[in-house]
Specification:
By secondary structure, the chain is α/β, with parallel strands linked by helices. It contains ten helices and seven strands. Strands 3-2-1-4-5-6-7 form a seven-stranded parallel β-sheet, sandwiched between helices. Helix 5 packs parallel to helix 7. The longest helix is centred in the middle third of the chain and has 21 residues.
Length: 272
């Protein structure tokens, strides 16, 4: 009798589904965000891949069509109502890792000395600072219910005052927004630490994306076409591929703990 009960218990344990880890990625329509969706899904994770305009996210839609683990969702990180709607849709669901990846460089010409523009400043800070804070706030219960309990900010070395003497590409607003986001998330790390949630702040490296090419002064259209063709970056800048950056970032996320929560490090483990 005892043997049969033990055997039955073992059979149930073996047949029970393993914990399906879930990641939520903002700005998953292209670049680093799209690669996060690809690599996490390949590892067997459930991926909530969000984009401001899913209908226009052709690459993400194609990826989701080929992989049932990926769910594409609409999310505008500058719109509190949009954030609340997605959080409500997934109420009661656990999210192991929340990746605040959505970012904006902003019009380069309007954030250089002699032509500063207030509207561009507002736009860049709304995406890069308000977005991560509001998304983290809205999904904190989901993360608290997860097993990993991690909130991630994809920042930039441009936000490191000690490392950068001049904003890249004349992007004063971009650099300032990343420094502000770093400090905001560092503060958040202390707020959520009692709940067992760790917050990590990461520089992804110089990754060959449309945003990097825009920092070199290219227009959005030119930058996108050049990136798709694999054209060399100005000055023969040696950039990482999205695959290289994301694979190393995911290893850093795995190392994140409550002891290291709130720290700012590079994709290759260098402290910033």
């Amino acid at each position: 009798m005892i043997r049969s009960l033990v055997a039955a218990a073992m059979a149930m344990a073996l047949s029970a589904p393993a914990w399906a880890e879930t990641v939520l990625v903002t700005g998953a329509n292209r670049g680093i965000g799209l690669e996060f969706a690809r690599q996490y899904a390949a590892k067997g994770w459930t991926v909530i891949a969000s984009a401001r305009d899913p209908a226009a996210a052709d690459d993400l839609q194609a990826l989701a069509k080929a992989n049932a683990r990926i769910a594409v969702e609409r999310l505008d990180v500058t719109d509190a109502a949009s954030i609340a709607a997605l959080a409500a849709k997934h109420r009661g669901s656990a999210i192991d890792v929340l990746i605040n990846n959505a970012g904006a460089f902003g019009a380069r010409a309007e954030q250089t000395f002699g032509s500063f523009d207030a509207a561009t400043l507002t736009e860049v800070f709304a995406v890069n600072v308000f977005g991560p804070l509001k998304v983290s706030e809205a999904f904190v219960e989901h993360v608290a219910a997860g097993r990993d309990k991690k909130i991630i900010l994809i920042s930039s070395i441009a936000g490191s005052i000690a490392s950068v003497t001049r904003p890249p590409g004349g992007g004063s607003y971009y650099a300032a927004s990343k420094a502000a986001a770093n400090m905001a998330m560092r503060g958040l790390s202390q707020t959520v630490k009692p709940r067992g949630i760790a917050v990590g702040i990461y520089h992804p490296g110089g990754v060959d994306t449309r945003m990097l090419r825009e920092a070199f002064g290219m227009s959005q259209d030119v930058a996108e076409v050049a990136a798709e063709r694999g054209d060399a970056l100005p000055g023969n800048f040696k950039a990482l591929t999205t695959e290289e950056s994301v694979s190393q970032l995911m290893a850093r996320f795995a190392d994140l703990s409550l002891e290291t929560s709130g720290t700012f490090i590079s994709y290759d483990s260098r402290p910033l």
